[in-house]
Structures are given as C-alpha cells and as structure tokens.
Amino acid sequence: MTLFAAIFQGDGSLFYGLHVDNGRIGGKMKKTLREIIEKYNLNVRITPNQNIILTDIRAAWKRPITTTLAQVGLLQPRFVDPLNLTAMACPAFPLCPLAITEAERGIPDILKRIRTMFEKVGLKYNESVVVRVTGCPNGCARPYMAELGLVGDGPNSYQIWLGGNKNQTSLAQSFMDKVKVHDLEKVLEPLFYYWKQKRQSKESFGNFTARIGFEKLKEYVEKWEGPVVAPTRYNLRLFADKETYEAMDGLAKLQNKTAHQLAMEVIRNFVASNQNGKSE
C-alpha cells in the first residue's frame, strides 16, 4: 500500500496523500487546496516528511478532488520525480538566523543535478536516493539518517553524510567536509557509478555505502575519471528522431535541464492534467 494514493481508511471513506515539495504551498496551489478542504469539509494531516493527507473523502468525491488538485500541480507521486518524493530541506536562508548556507532554496537545483548524474552513469529513472539538505549542523531536515545528507558547514559549502537507509532507521556518518556546492559532481558522480556497478541485488545507496566503507569510497572518488561506457547522443526511448531530440535539447538547456528531464516533465504534467481518475 502506498500512502500517496486514495486508500480506504476503514470506515467506508478514503484518505488521500499529496506530495508537497519541502512542505511549502503558495499562490494558486494553496488557494485550491483550501477550497477543496472547505467544499468537502475534509480533515487534514501533516506528515513528518512535510506532506499532506486529506481524510474522510467519499468515493464519489475522488475524481473531482484528484483532477482539481492535479490541475494546479499538487500531484500524486507517480507523476513526481522519485528523487523529490523523499527529499527534504530546512528553510535556511533567508528565514533562519542559524543558517550558514542555502537549503530549501538550493535543493531544487541540487536534485536536478543529481538526476543528471544518475542519467550520466546509467541509473534508471525509477531509482532514487533519500536526500536531505540543511543550512547548518542542527539538522532540522534529518540529514543524519538520510542516504545522502548535505549539512551546511560554511558559505556555499556542505558536509556530505552517507550510510543512512531508505527508511531512515540507521544513522549516517560524515564522509567528507567543506565540499563546495559547485563541486558536488566531483564527489557524488563517482559514488553513484560505483553503486550502480558494485551493488548487490536491490541494495540501496545508503546500505551500499555502509557496506563498502568510507576508505574504499574515498579512494574511488580520488581515482575517478568518468564512466567507462560512453553516453548515447540521444535517448531513443523518448525521441523518435534526432531532430526532435535536438529541438528538445535546445529548450532544456535554456532551463538548465537535460532533454530527458524536460521531456519527462512535459509527459508527467500532460498525464497529470488529463488523468481524471481514469488510471485508478
């Protein structure tokens, strides 16, 4: 059972989970959510991972509620990048006086860069890592239990913590200090490739880093010269011809994305806006 779907709650009604990036909703999203809650007199739960559960939904309300929410971008997780589903950041700048670097404002770009690294080393789209980012060592976004924790230790600089697991039931450990945000690829890309090449069956990134040990991981990072396999020029799974790929690639570069990222975003948004409950 997945939390982020319409599930029977035991009394004939449904509860429905919504993914919220970093727990922050504004503008039209907030207005629409409030209208839905008031119109159907729903109860609301806020989860420890900054998401929302709407409860006491009658079966007849399911389709209009899901359709209305999807139209403003409040999506069911099957339409959200898997990296975003479990990612979390504290507010940090400009709201927290304890912050020494970015977190909430910086995590969207960090997740896009991680997705690009995944694509470069050959990891599949449905594979994910629990990422947490905080603007100081107080750890309000729980980076010390994440598979990949970035803990602010200076201006535009982070400690990298590794070794937690997907369920956050084990503690991570400090892997590297004073890594500048623009140097994250130098550390993370070889780690992701090492994981892809040497993991055991269904072994998560956090469990892999804990099993291999930090000494071997650091040695691998230091010797990294790039993936062995050459990347393909364009993704035939998404693009039927070279011209379509090049057009999408040009648009993607304007948004600091890869062609694959932009294409998947367009597809997910189209499906979400037209779902109308047909796939449920």
What features would you highlight for this structure?
single chain; 280 residues; alpha+beta; Sulfite Reductase Hemoprotein, domain 2; Sulfite Reductase Hemoprotein, domain 1; 5-stranded mixed β-sheet; 4-stranded antiparallel β-sheet; 9 strands; 16% strand
Short description:
With 280 residues, the chain is of the alpha+beta class. The protein contains 9 helices and 9 strands.
Detailed description of the structure:
This protein has 280 residues and is of the alpha+beta class. It has nine helices and nine strands. The strands form two sheets. The chain has a five-stranded mixed sheet with strand order 5-6-7-8-9. The protein has a four-stranded antiparallel sheet with strand order 1-2-4-3, with no helix packed on it. Helix 4 packs across helix 5 (184-198) and helix 8 crosses helix 9 (259-273).
Q: Over the alpha carbons, how many angstroms does the gyration radius reach? A: 20 Å
Low-confidence stretches: none
Q: Which bin fits the share of residues in helices?
A: 25-40%
Considering the protein shown, what is the CATH homologous superfamily of the largest domain?
Answer: Sulfite Reductase Hemoprotein, domain 1
Strand line-up of the largest beta sheet: 5-6-7-8-9
What is the correct CATH architecture of the largest domain?
A: 2-Layer Sandwich
The helix-and-strand class reads: alpha+beta
CATH class of the largest domain: Alpha Beta
Tell me what portion of residues adopts beta-strand conformation.
15-25%
Count of DSSP helices? 9
What name does the CATH topology of the largest domain carry?
A: Sulfite Reductase Hemoprotein, domain 1
Distance between the termini: 14 Å
Strand tally, please?
Answer: 9
Number of spatially distinct domains? 3
Gross morphology is globular
Average of per-residue pLDDT values = 89
Written as H for each helix and E for each strand, in order along the chain, the element string is: EEHEEHHEHEEEEHHHHH
Main sheet: strands, sense, barrel: 5 strands, mixed
